[in-house]
Amino acid sequence: MAGLAAGTPCKATVAACVQLSTKKAWLVRDGKAVYGPVPITSGRPGWRTPPGTFAVTFKNINHKSSLFNNAPMPYSVFFNGGIAFHQGSLSVQSHGCIHLSKAAAQTFFSSLSKGSVVQVVA
Length: 122
Fold this sequence. Notes:
This protein is mainly β. Helices cover about 10% and strands about 40% of the residues.
């Protein structure tokens, strides 16, 4: 389908792509997936990760959650209010964030910057 980044369900113009239904994420550059798909977990019932197109607002390599008992959120890349990509469990759903393996979280952290476009699709 025209307009999509090759190998992903997201627009060619985004920097990161998340597909909630398949629990996968990619990094995109010049209209092509350059990293991924990597496995993710997303929001649990009551804390669903909303689909949409967002921009990265800030990054924090050693973030601790202000909402959830200072829970560690290594390699956080925030893109929708309190929702971020970060290192987390791939077997437990989150409170809305996109959990990545340590290696994937490090790669997303180093590849994305403030203003990078993130698309989340169902």
